[in-house]
Amino acid sequence: TLSLHDALPISSSKAETGERVPHNEPPRYHADYLHNPQPPYPPLSRRLRESGSTLLRVHVTAEGVPDQVLIKLSSGSARLDQAAEAAVSQWRFAPAHSNGQAVAGWVEVPIIFKLDNPS
Description:
The chain is an alpha+beta fold. The chain has helices at 12-17, 43-47, 78-88, and strands at 24-25, 52-60, 66-73, 96-98, 101-103, 105-113. It has a 3-stranded antiparallel β-sheet, with no helix packed on it. A hairpin with a 5-residue loop joins strand 2 (52-60) and strand 3. The two termini are 29 Å apart. The model is unreliable at 1-15 (pLDDT under 50).
């Protein structure tokens, strides 16, 4: 299981002194209303029976649009990685929030390519 929490650590000294402690919430891509489709399985990868997981690191703007999609961990197949990258670059996200305001932030997105029927 991957953590989607990229929030900054909160200093306990601020909380103890009564200062306002920032509340940070990372971007989200799994909200029900976002309807982000899974990437299509590349036909050649399907024929070659390639499978694997690509872990993407995505920078999401305050508007919920990905403006950088980086491969953090490759599936081992350039085709699968490229399909994941292309699909997620078209997704929409619930942006990160800091103290109730939408802000840009990073999130990790796992994409799993698994053949249900190996034939």
